[in-house]
Amino acid sequence: MTGDSERDGFRGQRALGALSGLLAALLSLGTAELVAALLGRTSSPVIAVGGAFVDRTPRWLKEFAIRTFGENDKDVLIAGVVATVLVLALLVGALAVRRRVLGYAFIALLAAVAASAAVSRPNADWQDVLPSLVGGLLGGLALGLLLHAVSSRVAPRATTTEAGSQKPESQVGVGRRRFLVAAAGVGVAAVSTELIARAARSRLDVAASRAAVRLPVPASPAPALAPGAMLRTAGLSSFYTASRDFYRVDTALTVPQLTTEDWRLRIHGDVERELSLDWQQLLARPMIERDITLTCVSNEVGGNLVGTARWLGVPLKPLLEEAGPRARADQIVSRSVDGMTIGTPTAVVMDGRDAMLAVAMNGEPLLPKHGFPVRMVVPGLYGYVSATKWVTELELTSFDAYDAYWVKRGWAEQAPIKTASRIDTPRPFSKNPPGRVAVAGVAWAQHRGVSKVEVRVDGGPWQPAQLSAAGSKDLWRQWVWEWDATEPGTHKLEVRATDADGETQPQTREAPFPEGSQGWHSVVVRVTD
Amino acid sequence: MNLATRKPLAVAGVLAALTLGLTACGDDGDDTAAGTTSDSGMTSSAPSMTPSMAPSMAPSTEASTGSDMTGTDAASGLVGPGCADYAKAVPSGAGSVAGMAQDPLATAASNNPLLKTLVSAVSGKLNPKVDLVDTLNGDQFTVFAPVDAAFAKIDAKTLATLKTDDTLLTQILTYHVVPGQLSPEQVVGMQTTVEGGDVDVTGSGDSLKVNDANVICGGVKTANATVYLIDSVLMPAS
Predict the structure, then answer these.
(1) Locations of Low complexity compositional bias (chain B) (predicted)?
(2) Mean pLDDT, chain A, as a whole number?
(3) CB pairs below 8 Å between A and B: how many?
């Protein structure tokens, strides 16, 4: 009886030891990856060991691997390295229950091999030993912790037969709990370090990919702005919106990380010929550069989800013509890499406006948050029906056949941007000394153009504002009106714009849902005594 | 709008809000969850902007005025004896503490079942000449928001006057607004309102007073303003 239970105990101990070894090794690997990522290294100890292994591999084996695994040969290699380490960790963990020094020696050896592989890689420097050393150190600590819990779990058993009381039973319970807590802790730490390392690594890759982009010279540069296209009133929004300040509206909880190398665009669905483009093919096409004002449908009256940038990109029309949309395909469903869908009328994209696959914003490759490497821009449409970021797919279909993401949620299927105007200055409830007060702001009616902006005070007669010089009809215009503020007290300023078709924006308030907000923006201010 | 017969603390309104059953925020990535919330959002009359239903309020909106977009810590930093009851009555949705943090002030207030009278007063419904919605949404403010029961304490004659006297109504409403967002720690002391007069915030912890009004629940965040629900309407010295 005693002999059996002792043997069972040892067997259990060995299994727990193997588990301890495995968890410690996983934590080592995860930590090493994380440290490598934090150091800004695109390579980690595992990749270094894999590389060193390849360097020492006979050619026949290399050729066999390439033949057998094709493009996946690197993944197979890395999986091989990781599997080898984990199998060894299981074995050593089982042995280390009795002789803990074996475990430490194994981890030290592993760290040494990884560190020497890392520094032996081309372009390596002394910092490349850090991931292996930190990984080894944490792995060793974790192993010590776990093995201690294993022995505290089993140790009381030896005394059980002598004491024969209830107490050891509960001690076993305590030991088991201690081991479970330690194992769970190490497991969670291992998984989280690995996940964080991966996220950091993909950010590094995208940063490197973005830094390597060389923007082509546009075949059709942006037309020069007319003199007087920008007003200089204090407190007025600048004509161009800096990329970092540009509004960002999307459903991505984390910014999708897509490199130019991984980017592909597929044009398919109701087309004569499916097309597929990679980054080099996209960049080889003639580019247009245009100043365009974008607006989000959720912008409230007076809101700031609107901005202007200089976009560089490939015109969509000729690209689609190559694919040859069929007559019934009245909708282009664009998909971003994270699965977001946006539906745009085919007719709008094909009507000659500057609809494009943009690769740059304000003279720089797109920021990741604005859709790097490629996004759509269609002048005159709210973003949720046109401005797909991280775009990887254009599917020609019909509005009858498919509802895109926001349309499924009740938003309008088609959504041209409504004429709107906003007072930027004076600020709400601001105190203004009596005298001249510059009332200024912006107005937009993309693809129709703004022809007139008017301001009124306290519901009085409408006064025409001075407009900045007109640019393209896809651009907003700044405006300013000099208010002779003589009467102290509270006053309400209101603004309304008229588009180039002569349509004045209606007063009736509408909420952004389902097709964009509407109404005259107002600001209440005080004139002091 | 019959202000005299309004029930104290609008218990019925709170229960009605519960039936909207909106979830709070943040799960746009999940198709099913977002679909569910937006469906109920569409049918509500409020121009609701919780993230799962409005493109602009996706979790990653960065264009607004330094606001707390996550809503996760919106419930922290609340003070006042009525906070727990409010959280219990409106645990989720656009009118909840987390939901209000997503919307600009006037929209957030319109989703709050305790603020119906105040919302009608600032949005031109009580007096067509007084519409402060854009102004209140357009900058950072601290707002002392009298609940419906507070307006119910005002005599009928005064209320009738406010429907026609836009100068007086504007004066009263702006007396409840202080420039900048003030946390419960910062708000205590003499504060100059946008009306020009001062309000005196006294007390500490869960018992704050604004002049003679008690704070029911304060430190409630909206996208651009911090709100303190109070039990009486503040009257500026005229």
Answers:
(1) 27-65
(2) 90
(3) 118
